[in-house]
Amino acid sequence: NGRQQNPAPFSEVQFAVMPNDKIAPQIADVEIFFRGPDTDFDIDDTYPADYLLNLLGDPDGLYCQSLQNNPVYQIPSSEYVWSSYQTTRANGLFQFGAVMLSPEQDLVSRVSQMLAEVQDSILPAVAADESLYSRQKVADISRKLRDSDIMSAQTASGLLSTLQFWWVCSSPEYYYTYNEHIAAVKQKDVQDFVAKYFSGKKPIVTVMVHPSVYAQLKESFEAAAYDEITADKAFWWKDEAFAADPQKIAAAVAVPEQSEIYVPGNALAADKRYDLQGALRVDSYKLANGIPVYVQQMKGSKIDSVSIAVRGGIERLSPETSGLEAALFNQMSASSADYDNASRKTLAFDTQAGISVSSVAAGSVLSLGTLDAYLGKMLPVFTDGFLHPSYEQQAYDTMMTDYTNSIQSMMNDPNSLLSYTLTSTLYKDHPFATRTSVTPDSLKNITVENMQQLHKTILDPENIFVVAAGGMNGKKLVAELNKTIGQLPAVKDGVKYGIRDIPPVQVGAEPVVLTHPSAEGTGFVARVFASPPVTDPDFIPAVLASDIYSTILFNVVREQHGACYTPSAGVNSSRAPIGMEFLYRLSDPEHFASFVEEARGYMAQGKLIDSVGADGSYRFASIDDRLPSYKNAYIISTYGSQATVGGVASNLVYNMLTFNDMHYDRVLDSQVESVSAAQLVDVFKKYWIDTPSQWWAMVGPDIADRLEFGAD
Q: Contact 339/387 with Cβ under 8 angstroms?
């Protein structure tokens, strides 16, 4: 509306608490919100805001260390302390937050103490510390900002998104001159910023806890004037005072001048040819102990990715130890003999390099992503974690807290719980009963002792390979790796893991109805069946069929009948997969099955709904006419995941682990081109209609008796 929001909206601190059953009882989420600068009114203040934010993000800095090391707060580690500010035209917010353990222990006073320490002690001290504004410090911050620019501009879409963000939040000029302005920030600028936005201001303080914790502390929350956030008042847009005004919205939208619209020129790389074969070339090497190394050369890239992959996965485990390998790799990334957790955080903050982990059924991966300038510094950290994880107590506790909270969230989310229960039942006594992730039943077995035993078995060169992508020199990389993982000895009587036959899943017949109080008034419904394995000739036609069928489901089940919020269809990419029709947020428990059958019938006839007439009648198009666009969408999505250096490396690793063919995605893409509409419809009938299926539902107790699975 062209008017600045009140920079000091409250005369007193506003406290709010929200009971949430998706948060574990062992933790509390605490957040503090101050008004921040807006580019429409305080644009010069946004630069010291970002400079300050960089200082607050330092894991070794005063903010993180003060909160983490204060025993009153019981904050697990610096990863559970954060601050944020996002540049915006209006309604800017500066946020501070932390996760506290043992919330039942005098949480209210601990939150108040944190607010006082941040506002009255930490922020003034950060502003007063001359060393934080030295020439070297400014240079370091400027360097990290330039590094961020390189990361965000890996892809054309990434750069475009960045430019779009700044265009919306300020202007293109702001983006182009941003680093210069940050480099010009002085200590007085930050001191003035702290005085203007924090000193004496009254923020909003929010606390989120499990309902059982809230029940214990309700009296203390009420005594401290905390406002309880409930479903009735949790959404500000329900307040008529904030109703949208179409006229104001229309008036606020500026139409760009022709001169402001960028048009690509004809001379852009007109004489250049894309070297497809060069782009697909992967150089192969072997370490001294026989570990293969595959290097995808990406000329001109300033970003490097290196992954160590280990075959085995769930075959090494049991249902009772599900997720143990993923946990081990998590600990590899967290601490090691020569690089403890604290030093790794410092390196990550300084270089913006990251060590990540992933697990699939066939194995697990430890991956390093870094700017090329830091590869030499980060590679020893990376390999030391793989070879010598130290299972540092704080890192282990942090991981277990994350697992506990994730499981708590899943158990109280009806949609997630349906998926977990469904797959647990279908894959009982099946090889896939063992999962790559930690489960409620395996959590107690994620111990340091079990990880140490597992670690001994994975250090077998027979089951290890390395994939790298970027502009690095392959021979130099091999020489460095030979100093570490290349020294691993062969394992006597070791097991060689590889691709094995997996039996198909057996689907039951009778509908299964589960209830959950959080699904009151609605539900989540799935019809499942055994679908084609990822290596089966029917797999790609089934994927395309599910994409097209999802469109039909949307038009029939949601648009025509309003039976749910979002219907969809899909098939898993697996060696023993299930296919599914899924209805999200069910609203017609009596008739949904007949609406799904109606959509299924159109698909079986090769009809795609093109439009809906004013009288509600359908206008159909043939699947044959629309199939090319769905094929293109599939191929684009395949290569979209490989737009970054890390994406390229991840794709190669996945192909090797799952298919023992680093370019298997090309096989799938060639199959896409050959699929006909008739073949697609035949595959749809084979799996969605003729294959035995089973209904599963997770609904509110109030509608469980109203479910009708038989079509009218």
A: no
